[in-house]
Amino acid sequence: MSLAQLHYTSAAGFTAVSPDVPRELLDEAEEVLAAFPAPAFSLTQLSDGSRLLSRTTTDPESGAAHTHAVHLPAGERLPGGALPVTAWDSPRWAPVAPAPGSTPEPLDLLTPAAGFFDREGLAAFAAACGERLAGVLADVRALCEDPGAQPVVLVAQDPADIARWVAVVGAALPREHAHGLTFTTYAERPEHALQQIIGTSPDVVFPTAGFRVHRCDSGPSVTGAGSVPSVTDGGSAVSGTGAGPDSSDTGAGPARGGDDAWAAVAAQVWRAGRPELFKRAAAQPSLSNGEFEEGPLAATALSAGVPLDSRGRTAAARWAEQHADGLSASDWPALVGALCAPVPGPRPDGELDALARLAERVDGKVPTEILAPLAALFAAEDDNPTAVPELARQLAHELLADPERARSAAVREALDRHTDLHAQLLFHLDGLAPDNPFSVVRLLHTADLVRGVPDGLPHLRMCAAYPLPGASRQGSDEDRESTLHTVLRAAGVSPMVEPLVLRTGFRLVWPENLLPTPQEARWILGETGSDAHRTAGTYPELIRAALEGPADDPDVTPLAADLIRCFPHEIDARQLGALRMLEFAESLAEGRAGAGPVATALTLRSAAHPVEPAVLRRTFGLVARDLLAEQRPVGELSALARSGDADLIGAYGAAARTAPLLDRLRTAPSYAADCFVAWTSHVGASGVWDETRGALLEEVLRPALQHMTSREIASLLEHLDRSGGTHAADFRAWHRPGGTLGRLARRFGRR
């Protein structure tokens, strides 16, 4: 979309006007544009609500004033929603007027001058404005809320500084006001200007009655200090010698900067170099739906780390109290921490009252650990000894949940100022350490809360002695044993006397879901005895170490026997069944299991249901190993087949596929003959058995026979002949090509 344009010169009037500029506005537009001297950059509202954005320069050829303007119909903005002031010194403004009667070249946008309005530059300019910024913001706010309010006159040597002032003010304003704010960067006669913000130079003399005048060159400035303006009050000339701290220098009425909380907060945000917070604050719910409410801006600024004065902190606290239900849990930590941060001097009663109302409003709705700094602040202000223990308890939980908060100035100040609070905090941390020692370790490594190693706090001493968070996870068995010895010695009390130190040490060396190895579990049980583990509540981890230990770990089964002996009343029925399975596995491994291993294994499994996978693999694997031996227990293969148990028969099939057994099948004809007899027996005993034995015949035995010589096959047949029955004939029929078909397939194969 091309912008509607007008070109006007002081010598020839309009030289070029876009066709879409309403012709009925030309007389009014001419009157407006004729008043602009060079250099001037202006936004002026016309009678129909439309606006003219214009730049006036001196034509280098004729020396006449040339004004290039764009017409913005009522309600329309520049392309992309750019603020009008950003078009200052745009390279798209025409340097010379077109020929009279011509049509302006198409203009789709006014590209901002490179670097003129960058964030860093404007932040530096705002910081240089100092205390004057709040006064200007307050007066412009009055103009936005009341179009009949006194216009604001900004006096500066360089019109570019006026443009910067307009940009700084516009960034802080609500967007509707920022787009509608009219201005001119230079007027020779401010009393005749039509804009809300009027820029002029120090050498211009004008009556100040009816204006809010701000001397913008009377202090640090991006362009340097200029002369102090002379003004007339009621026609009398008055010369100033310098601006005071209040940015409202002259004009009717009291200075607004000191009374306007929004302006004061907005100025602090700008001086902190954080203009992006204005947009963020605009998305917050307002206390009274007022566009210039200071509460949302103050709360946003504090949460973002911008320090505010007492008025700003009070406004933020009041706003947070009113909108507590609309704030999420993630909004509170930063806001509360900023509200409680150290401040120079005492806090005024109004601020403390606002904080107290906020604390009462959110009590029970916001986690206490988040509000602990607020409670610490009240304890520090009131010096109330009865509140210290509860405050310390809350603070202990809060710091464990977020150790970084221990670095906050509010927490450090409260602990430094109140030794009782510090002592009570350590007492509560000591009490919390046995169940969550790694949180205490992280806290101690984050902040220096423990000065030395206090006596009488064994758990805290252990956490302070722990080397580094997470070190035991990567350490060897020797490292963990050494670490446990180190922290137990640091406690200064024996686990026999204070068993809870064993829990703390246990959680430090084997944190979270990390379990001791079965060997470590046997060692620590032998070192400390069962009574300490019983009282400390650490025996469940020892039980888990046995039940979840690797199926081939040699320390698992002796650990199971130790646990059954040491904790006969503490182990529940299911775990006891699983430990009994491990005991039974040990007897199988040592060849002293006795009769009926299949029935015994299934009975124990039933008592241990649902049994840990490693326990099941170990026990059922050993049963299967015995059933695959040539001297298998009498009747046990039949018991296996008729059980129909998928787990046990599956373990049998898996054991038959292990490398040692496969090697034996390939090289021992007698063993291959025994397996053929076993895997063609008990046909129909159970579906699972038929499926498994058929698979073993086809997938295990047949491939193994391919490795045998004809002499070894003959030896296999001799063994089958000696076993009696039809085994040899059945083998010959099964072994020849096509032997899996027909009657033999139904008899020996999978159904």
From TrEMBL:
GTPase-associated protein 1 N-terminal domain residues: 20-99
Highest taxon listed in the record's lineage: Bacteria
Native organism: Streptomyces cremeus
InterPro entries with a match to the protein in the record: GAP1-like_C (IPR049532), GAP1-M (IPR045401), GAP1-N2 (IPR045402)
Domain GTPase-associated protein 1-like C-terminal: residue ranges: 374-731
Protein name listed in UniProt: GTPase-associated protein 1-related protein
Region described as Disordered: spans on this chain: 222-258
Residue ranges constituting the GTPase-associated protein 1 middle domain according to the UniProt record: 123-203
